[in-house]
């Protein structure tokens, strides 16, 4: 909070020396392959940038250096977005955001910015947003900005509204939104530039999509086991009416019940705990996308910067190069960790799915005992045959679920294997 106060103090005190012209509805072009960055101190005062930033922003190096970043703030931007940006940065998170900026001429340009804490401040790397997500975000920002002005919302209230709108779209945190958005932008850009798919990303995608299918399958299986209680209850009711064989049927029902209970408990260990809904909470697979995309983009940013060795007045390009490379390594490490997590959880799911299969086999043995008993009681056990055939249907359904589970687990393991 301390830095936030300093930033606010700085924003009030330090008006930019240079100013942009009045906003006009003209887009400042830049190419999809272009990437640019700026680095600020902890208060958002610009310290360094590359030549593309100079060209797009339209300001000279002299005007940019030492200016607060709000120099290029566009009035269409909801302040809630910047509240989220600073909240993330001050809590040590990288933040991805769509930002509409204005340049010196008052022209606008959209970027998808990835802002990260670095030594002594923050670094923002930007790409051109080209995914369909931008249109959605533009609409969202328009609505929020209108409400901000009409209802005189604070930046924090506006941020809450943004989070509410995202939740309405099924995205339960800003962390999840930025990961999803970065992934979308990364892929749209890759396709626009006709670059081949990155295998780490497509494997992660396979793991994520299949894990979701697996989760649904496990949920359905858990429901099925919940509803199986009725089968043993019927068995016990039936046994109570029997003159012969009551004890055996009762025993079978009791064993079946115990086994069902064990399976239900085991299934509970397979259920993935729900992800928190704090601003920066993010499901593992989305977190992995975010880190992998960030790592690839940072690699490209480093290569571009190195290749163009842009001599910008007032910017020490060797120093900036080192900052970029350090950040790239950080992203790389985090993306490797995210991938390793995916591989680990796939292996653990496989072990537990195997155990589940064995338990179901045990359950099936009890069912067979019940069928044998029904055969022995024959004429005296008409109702029991109906119960046994219901058990058969139940076991067939379970078997079908188990097969699907096995198929998903194998898909995940194959993708994880390619990763390793
Ligand atoms: C590294 C970094 C990059 C930033 N980039 C932008 C930017 O491109 N456009 C922008 O309007 N604000 C940017 N900001 C946020 C500004 O510092 C500022 O919070 C924002 O313009 C809103 O200004 P205000 O809080 O004074 O209203 C950036 C901040 C940091 C730390």
Automatic annotation (TrEMBL):
Residues 50-118 form the PAS fold-3 domain. Gene3D superfamilies: PAS domain. InterPro entries: PAS (IPR000014), PAS-like_dom_sf (IPR035965), PAS_fold_3 (IPR013655). Coiled coil: none annotated. It comes from the Bacteria. Pfam families: PAS_3. Signal peptide: none annotated. This is PAS domain-containing protein. It comes from Thalassovita mangrovi.
């Amino acid at each position: 909070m301390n830095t936030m106060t300093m930033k606010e103090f700085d924003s009030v005190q330090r008006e930019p020396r240079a100013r942009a012209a009045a906003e006009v509805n003209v887009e400042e072009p830049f190419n999809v392959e272009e990437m640019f960055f700026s680095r600020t101190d902890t208060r958002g005062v610009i310290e360094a940038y590359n030549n593309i930033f100079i060209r797009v922003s339209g300001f000279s190096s002299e005007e940019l250096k030492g200016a607060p970043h709000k120099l290029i703030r566009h009035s269409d931007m909801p302040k809630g977005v910047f509240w989220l940006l600073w909240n993330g940065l001050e809590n040590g998170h990288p933040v991805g955001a769509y930002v509409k900026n204005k340049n010196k001429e008052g022209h606008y340009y959209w970027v998808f910015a990835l802002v990260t804490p670095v030594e002594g401040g923050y670094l923002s790397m930007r790409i051109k947003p080209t995914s369909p997500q931008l249109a959605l975000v533009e609409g969202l920002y328009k609505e929020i900005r209108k409400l901000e002005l009409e209802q005189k919302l604070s930046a924090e209230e506006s941020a809450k509204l943004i989070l509410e709108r995202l939740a309405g779209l099924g995205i339960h945190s800003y962390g999840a939104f930025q990961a999803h958005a970065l992934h979308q932008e990364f892929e749209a850009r890759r396709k626009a530039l006709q670059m081949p798919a990155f295998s780490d990303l497509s494997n992660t995608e396979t793991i994520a999509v299949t894990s979701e299918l697996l989760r649904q399958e496990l949920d359905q299986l858990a429901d099925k086991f919940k509803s199986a209680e009725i089968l043993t209850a019927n068995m016990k009711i039936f046994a109570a009416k029997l003159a012969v064989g009551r004890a055996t049927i009762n025993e079978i029902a009791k064993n079946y019940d115990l086994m069902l209970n064990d399976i239900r408990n085991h299934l509970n260990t397979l259920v993935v705990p729900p992800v928190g809904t704090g601003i920066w909470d993010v499901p593992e697979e989305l977190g992995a996308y975010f880190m992998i995309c960030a790592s690839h983009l940072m690699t490209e940013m480093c290569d571009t910067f190195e290749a163009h060795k842009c001599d910008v007045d007032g910017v020490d390009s060797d120093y900036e190069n080192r900052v970029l490379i350090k950040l790239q390594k950080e992203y790389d490490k985090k993306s490797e960790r995210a991938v390793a997590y995916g591989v680990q959880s796939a292996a653990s799911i496989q072990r537990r799915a195997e155990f589940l299969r064995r338990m179901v086999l045990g359950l099936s043995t009890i069912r067979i005992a019940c069928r044998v008993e029904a055969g022995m009681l024959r004429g005296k056990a008409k109702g029991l045959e109906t119960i046994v055939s219901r058990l058969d249907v139940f076991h067939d359904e379970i078997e079908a679920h188990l097969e699907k589970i096995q198929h998903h687990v194998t898909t995940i393991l194959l993708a994880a294997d390619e990763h390793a």
